[in-house]
Amino acid sequence: MFALARLVVVGFFVLTIVYICLSLYSRSVRRDKLETEWREGGTEGANIEEFVQKGLEEYDGSLRRKLILGVYVIPIGIVSFIIYATNFM
Q1: Where does the sequence pass through the membrane (predicted)?
Q2: CA-CA distance, 27 to 64, in Å (whole number)?
Q3: pLDDT reported for residue 89
């Protein structure tokens, strides 16, 4: 039982680090794309800070942001299936 608890704690810690890194990277890429779009003249009348801020607010509610949570779901599902298959099949 102790081994399972250790696996859960260490696994959650590692997955959290991966999630944070992936989330920061994705947000950085989105910010770069928004800045490039503004420099190419896609909008008029807005300064770059307002344009990027509005774009990042839209990004926060997007599907891509939610899909990053798959970092938790997929590995937990795979480990759960392996434990089930090993013990009960």
Answers
A1: 6-25, 67-86
A2: 10
A3: 85
